């Protein structure tokens, strides 16, 4: 049994409801519309209406995305930027949103991640230090910061 396609009016109402509950970007809205069988001029009109009524704002979405990912998920700049690129956010908006990152909190997040991961490793072994380094890089942190955090961990935990 095939479902009836959504009308553009119903799609707009559903998207407004969705946007009222959480931040979304224009790419996510376009993806939803394509999934509902609405494309082309109709989809553009719906997205324009969402933007005009401030249900969707890519800058606001990017700032929120950056704050949530570095504070709650513990992601580094690189992983956050890749997430925004995947959402088709323009580079200038990404750069502006990345300014939301507080350097002290950012480095503390990395330190906390390294400390937690290192507790199960023997940092006197090269392989374990390498695992720690790859872990930090995999979370999206810059290599120099990861190396600094590992050195600080090792210095603090020498016996």
Structural account:
Helix content is 70%, strand content 0%. It has helices at residues 8-21, 26-35, 40-52, 58-71, 77-86, 91-98, 103-118, 126-138, 143-156. Helix 4 runs antiparallel to helix 5 (77-86) and helix 8 crosses helix 9 (143-156). It is mostly helical.
Task: Describe the secondary structure blueprint for this structure.
Elements: H1 8-21, H2 26-35, H3 40-52, H4 58-71, H5 77-86, H6 91-98, H7 103-118, H8 126-138, H9 143-156
Helix pairs in contact: 1-3, 2-3, 4-5, 4-6, 7-8, 7-9, 8-9
Brief write-up:
The protein is 70% helix and 0% strand.
Helix and strand element order = HHHHHHHHH
| Percent of sequence in beta strands | under 5%
Q: Measure the end-to-end span.
A: 69 Å
Shape from CA axes? Answer: elongated
Poorly predicted parts: none
Rg, Cα atoms, Å? 21 Å
Count helical runs: 9
Q: Helix content range of the residues, please?
A: over 70%
Biggest sheet statistics:
none
* Number of E-type strands: 0
Provide keyphrases for this structure.
single chain, 159 residues, mainly alpha, 9 helices, 70% helix, 0% strand, elongated
């Amino acid at each position: 049994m095939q479902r009836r396609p959504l009308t553009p009016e119903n799609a707009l109402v559903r998207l407004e409801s969705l946007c009222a509950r959480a931040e979304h970007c224009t790419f996510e809205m376009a993806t939803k519309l394509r999934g509902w069988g609405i494309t082309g001029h109709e989809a553009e009109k719906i997205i324009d209406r969402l933007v005009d009524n401030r249900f969707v704002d890519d800058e606001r979405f990017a700032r929120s995305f950056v704050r949530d990912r570095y504070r709650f998920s513990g992601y580094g700049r690189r992983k956050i930027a890749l997430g925004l690129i995947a959402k088709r956010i323009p580079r200038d908006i990404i750069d502006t949103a990345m300014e939301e990152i507080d350097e002290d909190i950012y480095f503390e997040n990395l330190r906390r991640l390294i400390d937690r991961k290192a507790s199960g490793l023997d940092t006197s072994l090269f392989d374990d230090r390498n695992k720690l380094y790859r872990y930090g890089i995999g979370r999206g942190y810059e290599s120099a910061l990861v190396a600094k955090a590992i050195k600080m961990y090792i210095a603090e935990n020498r016996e």
